Amino acid sequence: MPEAVQKRITDIGPPHYEKFLPPIIKKNYGKWKYHEVMKPGVLVHVSETGDKLYSVRVASPRILAVDTFRMFADLADKYSEGYLRWTSRNNVEFLLSDATKIDPLIADVTAKGFPVGGTGAAMSNIVHTQGWVHCHSAATDASGIVKAVMDDLFPYFNGEKKLPAKTKVALACCLNMCGAVHCSDIAILGIHRRPPKVDHSTLGKTCEVPTLVASCPTAAIRPQSKDGKQTVHIEEDLCMFCANCYTVCPSVTLNSGINDGVSIWVGGKVSNARSEPRFSKLAVAYIPNNPPRWPEVVEAVKKIVEVYAAGARKFERVGEWIERIGWPRFFELTGFEFTKYHIDDFKLASKTFRTSMHYRMS
Amino acid sequence: MANSETPLVDQLLTGPWPSFVAEFKKLTARKPIVRAFLGQLEQSYHDKLSHWKHGGIVGVMGYGGGVIGRYSDLAEKFPDVAHFHTIRVNQPAGWFYTSAALRTLADIWDKHGSGMTNMHGSTGDIVFLGTRTENLEPCFADLTKAGFDLGGSGSAMRTPSCCCGMARCEWACYDTMALTYDLTQSFQDELHRPAFPYKFKIKCSGCANDCVASVARADLSIIGTWKDAIQQDDAEVKKYVDGGLDIVNDVCMLCPTRCMRWDAKGSKLSIDNQNCVRCMHCINVMPKALRPGKQRGAALLLGSKAPIVEGALLSTVLVPFVEIKPPYTELKELIEKIWEFWDEHGKNRERIGELVLRVGMGNFLEAIEVAPAPQMILHPRENPYVFYEEYFAEE
């Protein structure tokens, strides 16, 4: 295709966002005065000019067929002059300047299987990764668990059940955490539990041994020669299942159908409101994979949400609530077993140990 | 009945939440690749294992990233997903679209791939899921013809992303979309041709609510803030209180520095602005009455990342306040200095946050010519092992 090569366009970057902004946004850019949640899933932004923009927030499974693009495009043409956006949590927002179109849009999009909600003190969409749908290093599926959890906790999305504050749930299917779940109110994290299995027959050909050895944070990987071939040996006691070795070398695999599963973390946040951003902490160390609906994972997440909803004060995020009542009571209320796995043993672990007498007995 | 071929994943078709399996089923009639895909996913649900092989280097000419190679380990059983590569397409800033743009993207991906997407990927890109190697170049040609380009992957600057900022938020302290667009355009080479020790993510949040989680997910987190006093409308404050807001318990008592006082008799809220840490709580609760100050800009924080390799990090304060105004020259020069230092001293697969910890923040600051400031730390060091660099020679 010499002609195609000649005309090849590269390095143009993304299209300029102005092409996609509705006229009401162009007119009021930087002039928004305040916003309110009109009802679950509907925001109104009011400008200094008096203009009002209505955003209708619609759930999405994140995985979308192009047919659904076309369906959303048709809805946007009908109700929002062709304008819509996606949120950082993968919801779709239709941007309306005509308030009379809000309810017809909600009826229409809901009838098509895409419910409305996720605004304010609610559970929004679960940010998640690829899982078995598209990743080689996944220790669990992402979309399946998300679907099962959101089906069960749906009343917290559509506003039927109330929460003290927004509750952000995230799922990453391995410790690479391309979903960066480590600062979420509730994080579901895929984990491996079997040390890497070494394929000695391919390792020398497919991987650089020094890079592989260097990839291990605990120096559990040692160079070794086997039948005259260059390979490695794993000190299994030193393995903490980070799978960093697998990232650099396909001949050391951690995936294991009978061992892989999920851990659950709580109390992280990224917002600075009231308290500082913080990491999520371990709540449940291991739940085996149980597709297609992971009932044990759903139960654990539901338990956390329910005791939080019942016990937290207004505006208190999960981590702020736990900090107020103390971790002993969190474990008591949820019924989760506190085990040795809950006590950190990596770098700076002692920073998480208690040095005071300031603790509750339960 | 076709459903019986995938009994496990079909159990995810029911329930109130939109089903990703239903999305795949929209395509099975016309896409053999999606039929094969669902078969393999069913196998994964049975085996409790991923059936995608490790990596594979594929891409478009002249780029070192933007395409993730993916091959099935069950290619004999499901030949139509032998290749199932991902294309990352750089999203428009703020994730705004028109119906026309959506249809264009749909048509391109219907023509060249599986028709399955992620809206959006974790870093922010439009993700096209699943195509064969020979379709990559034609798909890229159609994308660029339509004004779209690929996003980042590998050891490169990853696709920058941002909140909707001034387009639809009263709290945006700088124009996040304009900055994101400008940085993306200015660093196209760094985006498309991986030349760094590892990935480098930039996320722009308009305020400290941090809707794009930049403090947790970006090597460089640019978070909007202000320098002067919170803008206060006393009449609106009173309206909130008259309307039933418990201003003492829900606002003043939740202020992290307790810098707010409510005088019930005089119906007057007073804020000790010098002690305000601009956390956003009071502004979130009373958006009509309180607004960020007028001297707006951003803080630059550096180094957050997920656990791999040396443990997870949050970004930490590098520049407490900077004005964010085009052409952003100082900011870009700082970014380039950071990259230069990282290029020179970073180990393979060492993120910038890990490098700073290894070489010492003080040494890093010296190298990038940023003066130490007490806002960078919670408190001065407690540890007396100081690496003093100078001493007087004795006779």
Shape of chain A: globular
CATH class of the largest domain in chain B: Alpha Beta
Nearest-angstrom radius of gyration of chain B? 25 Å
How does CATH name the architecture of the largest domain in chain A? 2-Layer Sandwich
Largest sheet of chain A, in brief, is: 5 strands, antiparallel
Count of separate DSSP helical elements of chain A = 12
Strand-residue proportion of chain A: 15-25%
- What is the CATH level 1 assignment of the largest domain in chain A? Alpha Beta
Largest sheet features of chain B: 5 strands, mixed
Task: Please tally the β strands of chain B and state the result.
Answer: 14
Strand percentage of chain B, roughly?
5-15%
Structural class of chain A: alpha+beta
**Topology as H/E string of chain A?**
HHEEEEHEEHEHHEEEHHEEHEEEHHH
Terminal CA distance of chain A reads: 73 Å
Number of strands of chain A: 15
Shape of chain B: globular
Overall mean confidence score, pLDDT of chain B: 96
